[in-house]
Amino acid sequence: MATLEVRGVRKEFGKLVALDGLDLDVGDGEFFVLLGPSGAGKTTTLKCVAGLETPTAGRVFIGGRDVTDVEPNARRVAMAFENYALYPQETVFDNIAFPLRSKRYYLPPAEAKSLIERVTATLGIGHLLERMPGELSGGQRQRVALARVLVRPADVLLLDEPLSHLDAKLRAAMRAELKSLGELQQTTSLYVTHDYLEALALGDRIAVLRAGKLVQVGTREDLWHRPVDVFVARAFGQPQINLLGGQIEQRDGEAAFVTPDGLVRVPLGPVDLPSGAAVELGVRPRDLVFGEEPGMHPLRGRIYVVEPLGRQREATIQIGSQQIAVVTPFEDLQPDALATVSAPPERLLLFDRDAGQRIPLAMPGGVEETPQWREVEVSGRG
Ligand code: ATP
């Protein structure tokens, strides 16, 4: 086990800047997730840590040792790629056992066998040990490659979308299984994904990357309830967070959010912005409830469309020229009917419309409880 530090790492490919001064601190034994859209620089980060790419500038430290100029095979890192190579002439068992027969990672055959059986059982491929790689599906091959990395002792584990070839159901099951694996619990791990559910389920902490830069790092609660900006708010949740465009109206030290057509007016308490400031009000579809609830802010509109979403429904409500999504267990929702939904004040997020930064609100009540993303998994989308 070891700490991992990435200090001001910049990586250029010709004119393209893949990483732009990246700083990361991963604790000893921490499971740290890198989340970001395609091209954000996630894989490049892993490669710089593994030594497969040399940073243009900046340093990488493992266990406090500067490894920036150390050869990959002298770094004690193990890396699983999204695209994996297996030896086609060897059985699954022999593919996984291969590193354990080397001088470096040698394990006596009986120990190797029991380790391989345990890890492959967890990954749901224990019954495939005698098969050849050519007889496996893409998802099975990917798990064999992952097993081969997991059985090998390492200071730092680097995992690049290791579940990407699995279907949604198996992915959800594997997320839970991976968490139970001792190898992953004990080893400092850097895990790349563009799937927010995977990030929320697995990450002790999550770093969100965009265009080679770190946007935010924090726990799942930080990212869900206190996103630094609209980009992070949108990165978590399906359907995505609702964002209503409007402006600030100040009166007697109290601010309100008002849409241009005046159809939505939400008191916000004291906000440090002048009247007329362009803002967006964010509320997650799962935080809205149908009906008018005491202490909540009503939003009135017309039901535009209703779609099934797992065991629930996603209703789109038209409010003037804007639309919001609501996830609800309600069955009796008729398109075109008038509807009122209520927004809990402590779940409202306010963003500066131009820069996209979140503006803190002094709302009553806390938001410290478990985020509602758990329901997202139960309802079966993603
Ligand atoms: P994805 O989710 O699609 O894998 P990513 O976040 O892992 O994306 P990277 O693979 O790190 O992104 O790529 C970051 C940027 O660097 C991209 O614009 C990519 O095209 C570019 N890039 C990566 N490797 C190279 C290379 N060897 N030569 C040139 N450009 C590269």
Layout of helices and strands:
Blueprint: E1 4-13, E2 16-26, E3 31-35, H1 42-50, E4 57-62, E5 65-66, E6 77-80, H2 92-97, H3 109-122, H4 138-150, E7 156-160, H5 168-180, H6 182-186, E8 188-193, H7 196-202, E9 205-210, E10 213-218, H8 220-225, H9 230-235, E11 242-251, E12 254-258, E13 265-269, E14 278-283, E15 289-290, E16 297-309, E17 312-319, E18 322-328, E19 338-343, E20 349-352, E21 358-359, H10 373-379
Number of spatially distinct domains: 2
Q: Name the poorly predicted regions.
A: 365-370, 373-382
The number of distinct helices, counting runs of at least 4 residues, comes to: 10
Instruction: Summarize the amount of helix as a percent range.
Output: 10-25%
The CATH top-level class label of the largest domain: Alpha Beta
- CATH topology (level 3) name of the largest domain: Rossmann fold
Strand content: 25-35%
Kindly provide the radius of gyration, computed on alpha-carbon positions and rounded to a whole number of angstroms: 24 Å
N- and C-termini, Cα separation: 33 Å
Spatial arrangement of strands, main beta sheet: 6-7-8-3-9-10
Main beta-sheet strand count, sense and barrel state: 6 strands, mixed
Ligands, deduplicated: adenosine-5'-triphosphate
Structural category:
alpha+beta
Mean pLDDT: 90
CATH architecture of the largest domain: 3-Layer(aba) Sandwich
